[in-house]
Write a structure and sequence with these properties.
This protein is mainly beta. 11% of the residues lie in helices and 60% in strands. The radius of gyration is 20 Å and the shape is globular.
Length: 226
């Protein structure tokens, strides 16, 4: 009996190890290579609005924290402050959890999880009470573990959300995004231009233009590697 139990435990351990080894980490999902431990990203939109974030990764390529610097204060108009922090728990890599924390009050404002459904499909669910939010996002991957499609549904503060994005690549570099806002019956295309890569083949600069060639946003990134 002990021998049979030992054999079952070995099989179970082997199965779980196999499952864990097949998990797509956050760096791969974002189409980054090498081994970044910190990525600073600044997105400048055509209306000159700026989104800044700093993402931190562990040595296995999973997110540990994202800091968003999108809070402006009237007494410091040229300086950005942390607006929120997302903290990740990846002990169970097949179903990771996260919490959005207010940096000043330390209050948890939203919660969620990100789980593997199959080798080609992952699901993220997030929710909060104030503002009222429930969002579900599906991530689809090709046989090379490359993100090819996302579909997000739910509601945010009373507004219905249903967005589909399809990604195209050439030599592992993103070339365009087809964006469909199903809820508002709108479709658009964003094309990557003037992409600059570092020595690890990660994009440190890119521009996204619409199908008329009009600049919609530019993205700048700084990578710090292990």
């Amino acid at each position: 009996m002990k021998t049979k139990l030992s054999y079952l435990f070995i099989l179970l351990y082997a199965f779980m190890s196999c499952q864990e080894g097949s998990i797509i980490n956050d760096l791969k999902i974002a189409n980054y290579s090498g081994h970044p431990k910190k990525i600073t990203e600044i997105i400048t939109f055509t209306n000159q609005n700026i989104n800044k974030s700093i993402s931190y990764f562990d040595k296995d390529g999973f997110l540990t924290k994202i800091e968003s610097y999108n809070l402006a204060k009237s007494q410091f108009p040229d300086k950005r402050f942390i607006s929120d922090i997302i903290v990740y728990d990846s002990k169970n890599k097949a179903k990771r959890s996260f919490e959005t924390v207010n940096p000043e009050s330390k209050k948890i404002e939203a919660k969620g999880n990100f789980e593997k459904i199959s080798d080609s499909l992952y699901k993220r669910v997030s929710n909060s009470d104030a503002p009222s939010m429930f969002l579900k996002k599906l991530f689809y991957f090709d046989k090379n573990n490359r993100l090819i499609k996302t579909e997000e549904t739910g509601n945010f503060n009373g507004t219905s959300i249903h967005t589909i994005i399809i990604y195209s690549y050439i030599n592992a570099v993103k070339t365009e995004m087809l964006v469909e806002n199903v809820a508002q019956h709108k479709k658009s295309k964003l094309i990557y231009k003037n992409v600059k890569l570092d020595q690890k083949a990660n994009s440190v600069y890119e521009e996204l233009v619409d199908d008329r060639g009009i600049l919609q946003q530019k993205v700048e990134r700084e990578f710090e590697y292990y």
